């Protein structure tokens, strides 16, 4: 796709993915992912402009409906919508009628009845976004449903890695840590495999999701309990947060033991760098510094953590743009 100018960003893209919703990373094939990432690269240029505003979604209304805490995702969807000139409203569970006992369905139908064009939803229940998409006419974007999926996170991760590594086809990405409680891992697996990357999931046996072996066997990705064996061949290492809020029991003996086995410590950063000076480090945030990632690694030159945040705005602009812009021309 040839680079487009700001003027063309104000009109529908030629290769636009025409799905109504973004609920799962599996909604997107390779060409659709590439179209979103190409548009995101163009959207990214808005960030360095003095006037960060495109008229693309003028007159459209986007509601961010967040039933779980969020810093990055919610604010980046808000900025993304605003930079595209949409009217953006944030509704969070705290402070909404949900705290008075209103059901998800009633809350969603109430908001939709106001004439909303897109609903960006985060909820602690897996499948919540899929359910909401059946209730409303608005476009629905899954901004994280429980331990299930987080498709825009996977897109921004792919975008950030691609910026440094180039095409991800054949690149080796190690995804490390609390796989059981992570929605990021499922979406990343789908997107990275669709893009042709080689993936190894690394976790202690207690944090390997049940049933992952069958998926790995059918899709051809690797599983490992040995981070030190995987690191030397990795082009990218994605560290996942230990999600204590979703843990009901003891998944590892002590924080110290977890770090010794699965943390990206300073010695491991050195191993990674020695083996591949161009390797990059990702973390979706929020980070538990000192647990799954040492400050040395989080702040290293190879770390993409802040690039991921910056990419998040561009990718979410692109997603809103692909879903909403010029939809009247959709068949
Ligand atoms: N921010 C990501 C998510 O919402 C990762 C995390 O919370 O650990 O899933």
Automatic annotation (TrEMBL):
Catalytic activity: carbamoyl phosphate + L-aspartate = N-carbamoyl-L-aspartate + phosphate + H(+)
GO molecular function, one term: amino acid binding
Residues binding carbamoyl phosphate, per UniProt: 72-73, 122, 150, 153, 285-286
SUPFAM superfamilies: Aspartate/ornithine carbamoyltransferase
Annotated keywords: Pyrimidine biosynthesis, Transferase
EC number(s) given by UniProt: 2.1.3.2
Any Gene Ontology biological process: 'de novo' UMP biosynthetic process
Pathway(s) it belongs to: Pyrimidine metabolism; UMP biosynthesis via de novo pathway; (S)-dihydroorotate from bicarbonate: step 2/3
Domain of life: Bacteria
Chain sites annotated for binding L-aspartate: 100, 183, 241
Residues annotated as domain Aspartate/ornithine carbamoyltransferase carbamoyl-P binding: 20-163
CC per GO annotation: cytosol
Pfam families: OTCace, OTCace_N
Top-rank EC class of the record's enzyme: transferase
Function summary: Catalyzes the condensation of carbamoyl phosphate and aspartate to form carbamoyl aspartate and inorganic phosphate, the committed step in the de novo pyrimidine nucleotide biosynthesis pathway.
Protein family membership: Belongs to the aspartate/ornithine carbamoyltransferase superfamily. ATCase family.
Protein name, per record: Aspartate carbamoyltransferase
Originating gene: pyrB
């Amino acid at each position: 796709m040839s680079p487009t100018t700001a003027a063309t960003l104000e009109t529908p893209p030629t290769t636009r993915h025409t799905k109504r919703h973004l609920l799962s990373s599996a909604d997107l094939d390779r060409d659709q992912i590439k179209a979103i990432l190409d548009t995101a690269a163009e959207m990214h240029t808005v960030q360095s402009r003095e006037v960060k505003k495109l008229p693309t979604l003028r007159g459209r209304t986007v509601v961010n409906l967040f039933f779980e805490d969020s810093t990055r995702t919610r604010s980046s969807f808000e900025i993304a919508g605003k930079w595209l000139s949409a009217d953006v409203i944030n509704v969070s569970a705290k402070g909404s009628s949900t705290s008075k006992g209103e059901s998800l369905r009633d809350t969603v139908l109430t908001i939709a009845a106001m004439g909303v064009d897109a609903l960006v939803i985060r909820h602690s229940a897996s499948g919540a976004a899929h359910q909401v998409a059946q209730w409303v006419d608005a476009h629905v974007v899954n901004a994280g449903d429980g331990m299930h999926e987080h498709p825009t996170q996977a897109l921004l991760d792919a975008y950030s890695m691609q910026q440094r590594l180039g095409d991800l086809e054949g690149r080796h990405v190690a995804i490390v840590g609390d796989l059981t409680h992570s929605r990021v891992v499922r979406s990343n697996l789908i997107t990275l495999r669709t893009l042709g990357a080689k993936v190894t999931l690394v976790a202690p046996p207690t944090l390997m999701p049940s049933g992952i072996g069958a998926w790995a066997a059918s899709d051809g990705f690797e599983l490992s309990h040995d981070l030190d064996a995987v690191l030397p061949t990795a082009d990218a290492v994605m560290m996942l947060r230990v999600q204590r809020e979703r843990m009901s029991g003891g998944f590892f003996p002590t924080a110290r033991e977890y770090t010794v086995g699965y943390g990206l410590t300073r010695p491991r950063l050195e191993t990674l760098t020695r083996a591949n000076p161009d390797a990059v480090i990702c973390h979706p945030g929020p980070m538990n510094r000192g647990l799954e990632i040492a400050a040395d690694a989080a702040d290293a030159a190879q770390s993409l953590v802040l690039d991921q945040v910056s990419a998040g705005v561009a990718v979410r602009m692109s997603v809103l743009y692909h879903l909403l812009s010029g939809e009247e021309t959709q068949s």
